[in-house]
Design a protein that fits this description.
This protein is of the alpha+beta class and 341 residues long. It has six helices and 19 strands. It has two domains: 13-255, Zn peptidases (Aminopeptidase); 260-336, RNA polymerase II/Efflux pump adaptor protein, barrel-sandwich hybrid domain (OB fold (Dihydrolipoamide Acetyltransferase, E2P)), CATH 2.40.50.100. Bound molecules: calcium ion.
């Protein structure tokens, strides 16, 4: 189901030569003309490590600016990976939503956009749209595989997991599942973002790339265990793709695949207050069971409001800040993949 790539029609430029062997570290420069800098550029960091024939693999971090295990792992690869130890071409982009990364925020402070809801971007749009368009139209056509390394960000605490983006192409879906399982994270989860196709992983699937996502805890912090899982998982996937010379394809633990099964997976706040969760991440829960309650601590006369799970499964993620408002995601439940009640 490869879509014919649209040629890149923007005006970004770079000193990186994508055909050159060895290691290069530099920037993609997007002409950008804010009040403070009429003729300046937004610089998106990029490294290319290339050695001989082999797959081209793109690894993205900083899609959201408050998620850190992926960008740390990508920076380490850029500095430390010996080109002689690999075959193919690795394109490393640790901070694609660069203004959000610099501000440590989920969305860009420049145009207010969520980088993961603008794909395939617009080369003549706002800065966030321009960066997505460059990756979609200039980088993806060179690539065979795409890893998008997320964590839960400031508002979520998520079980460390490797993520399958569902693809309608059965063969690509099978190759995606194999690559995601090669990551060997403690959990493997199918996440469709409620069917939203404007994400980086959905765009990568549409372009026919083998696609791997992650969620590595969150809370706007660097998690010790998730960072180790991320470092190891990325190397596992590169070995699985045949890129790392001498690294045998990893032997992975057999794990059930989970999924976020549509809106019933999400427990949303229905009023203002402080959310008290009843279960820790990883605990088994069932539909109809109380998930937690919302306290109005400034109003003792009002009883807490109980929220209930809508699905059977395990608690996969929880809201990190205690304060909630109507519509906030308080808890997420992951269910066994493919099972329907
Ligand atoms: Ca994210």
């Amino acid at each position: 189901m490869n879509t014919t790539p649209q040629p890149y029609a923007g005006n970004a430029f770079t000193e990186i030569d994508f055909e050159k062997p060895g290691r290069q570290i530099g920037f993609i420069n997007f002409p950008h003309s804010p009040h403070s800098d009429a003729w300046g550029v937004t610089q998106v960091p990029i490294a290319v490590i290339s050695n001989g024939a082999g797959p081209t693999v793109v690894i993205e971090g900083g899609n959201h600016g408050d998620e850190y295990e992926g960008p740390i792992t990508i920076g380490e690869l850029a500095r430390d990976l010996d080109p002689g130890s690999m075959q193919g071409r690795l394109i490393l982009m640790p901070a694609n939503n660069v203004h959000a990364v610099l501000a440590a925020t989920r969305t860009s402070p420049v145009d207010g956009l969520n980088f993961n809801r603008v794909w395939p971007g617009d080369p003549m749009g706002s800065i966030t749209q321009q960066i997505a368009a460059y990756v979609a139209h200039r980088i993806f056509p060179m690539a065979d595989a795409f890893l998008d390394l997320h964590s839960g960000g400031s508002s979520l605490d998520i079980l460390p997991s490797a993520i399958i983006e569902p693809s309608g192409d059965a063969d690509l879906h099978r190759r995606n599942v194999a690559a995601v399982q090669a990551f060997d994270a403690p959990y493997t989860v199918v996440i469709s973002n409620l069917g939203d196709k404007r994400t980086a992983t959905a765009a990568a699937c549409a372009a026919g790339l083998v696609t791997v996502g992650t969620e590595m805890r969150g809370c706007g912090a660097v998690s010790l265990d998730a960072l180790q899982i991320c470092r190891r998982g990325v190397r596992n996937v590169l070995a699985h793709l045949g890129m790392l010379v001498g690294d045998a394809s990893p032997v992975c633990a057999e794990r059930p695949i989970l999924e976020l099964r549509g809106p019933s997976a999400y427990v949303y706040a229905t009023e203002d207050g402080i959310f008290e969760p009843f279960h820790a991440n990883g605990e088994q829960v069932s539909a109809g069971q109380p998930a937690g309650r919302i306290h109005r601590i400034w109003d003792m006369a009002t009883k807490p409001l109980t929220l209930h799970y809508g699905a059977d499964g395990i608690v996969y993620g929880r809201r990190h800040p205690g304060r909630v408002a109507p519509g906030n995601c308080c808890v997420v439940v992951a269910s066994p993949y493919g099972e329907r009640k």
